[in-house]
Amino acid sequence: MRNILIGITAAVSLSVIVPAVNAEEAAPLSLAATTPITSAEVTGSVPQKLNVSKANVFNRLLKKIKDPNAAPPDDGIHDRANDAVFALQPPKVAYEGLPTTTFGNHVDWVKALDDGLLNPRYDRVDPDVEPFIMDLDIVRPVKASVPDVVFPHKPHTQWLHCSNCHPKIFIPQRLANTISMSAIILGQKCGVCHGKVSFPPETTSCKKCHSKPKPADWKPPLSQATVKNPWR
Amino acid sequence: MGAKMERTSVWKFALLGVLGWVSVFLMPQPAEAEYADVVINNYADAAGMRPVVFPHWYHRIRFRCKVCHADLGFKFKAGGNKITMAKIIDGKFCGACHNGEVSWSVENCGMCHSGIPGTPTHISGSTVQRLVAPAYKALPQ
């Protein structure tokens, strides 16, 4: 029994070299044992770690993906018992030579299309049908201090048809659509595609939409709680 | 004598501990499926088939969104299309192309029905899946 305890302690104390979170978890365990050898090993770095509260551990709400373009057999949703999975093309093979990004598929699909690297069909059978492209930018002022949104119709009409968005998702009328980031993240409005298929709203992709700087004289609007305050 | 035994056993267990940690880091890390892969499990599990995994990326290299989402009538909702094999054989949904003419035909069951049994309908890597309380969490394997 004592040997097992020593073993655990030794393992734990050696684990100090691996990430700090492990060391914090391990610290209470190593205190439980009283063997001189192990405690000597431990005293180097652990007691200082003990003072650090769990509150300091980073809480990553939107976790980073470890292997963004995993091959189908290794991606966690394909059944490895199914032989056909091994016949499927791995995404990395198909993405070779395409411009990259740091989010979504890690491929800049719109740029790939503009550069002529991709030529997806606009019709089910006829490869020669040209897409109906509308080049119209819509500027949407944003209440917050982030840059205003410019919605470009061009890259959207390269891929989609008008009826995909209008009038069900977006009413084609000025000031008729209320859009918020929370709605988008929960899969409404822009989030019907962005965040599921097209590039997701992430900290590195904000500026793809929020691209028009605020006018020089712009000031953040005062909140109602401030405006209504008679002692202001 | 007793002290010597004590010492060897300590190192034995220390080695065991090191091996334990090494094995933890050598274990396959849970990888995330390709962004926008759709798992469709409306009826597959109940019919004794693996759920379908639809790779968006593979299709968008070959077709623009408009072909499926405007012409073929696929709704922008995972599991919202109520696709059945009967509809596919009638030339609807996947069957519009997977008919042996535009693309390979329905006899390649395992190519689509390739998901881990019991996986619920969801879009992998979507913002909703990556929230603090995700709509669907991967099952332990």
Q: Could you please describe the fold and organization of this structure?
A:
The complex is a heterodimer of chains A (232) and B (141). Chain A has 232 residues and is mainly alpha-helical. Chain A folds into three domains: 2-55, no CATH class; 65-94, no CATH class; 97-212, Cytochrome C3. Chain A has eleven helices and three strands. Chain A has a three-stranded antiparallel β-sheet with strand order 1-2-3. In chain A, a hairpin with a 7-residue loop joins strand 1 (137-140) and strand 2. Chain A is extended, with a radius of gyration of 27 Å. By secondary structure, chain B is mostly helical. Chain B folds into two domains: 1-29; 38-123, Cytochrome C3 (Alpha-Beta Complex), CATH 3.90.10.10. Chain B has five helices and three strands. A three-stranded antiparallel β-sheet of chain B has the order 2-1-3, with no helix packed on it. Chain B starts with a helix and ends in an 18-residue tail after the last strand.
Summarize the structure.
The complex is a heterodimer of chains A (232) and B (141). With 232 residues, chain A is mostly helical.
What name does CATH use for the topology of the largest domain in chain B?
Cytochrome C3
The radius of gyration of chain B is 23 Å
Beta-strand proportion of chain B:
5-15%
Overall shape of chain A? extended
Task: Please report which band the strand proportion of chain A falls in: under 5%, 5-15%, 15-25%, 25-35%, 35-45% or over 45%.
Answer: 5-15%
Report the total helices of chain B. Answer: 5
The name of the CATH topology of the largest domain in chain A is Cytochrome C3
CATH class of the largest domain in chain A: Alpha Beta
Domain count of chain B: the total is 2
Largest sheet, strands/sense/barrel of chain A: 3 strands, antiparallel
CATH top-level class of the largest domain in chain B: Alpha Beta
> What oligomeric state do these chains adopt?
heterodimer
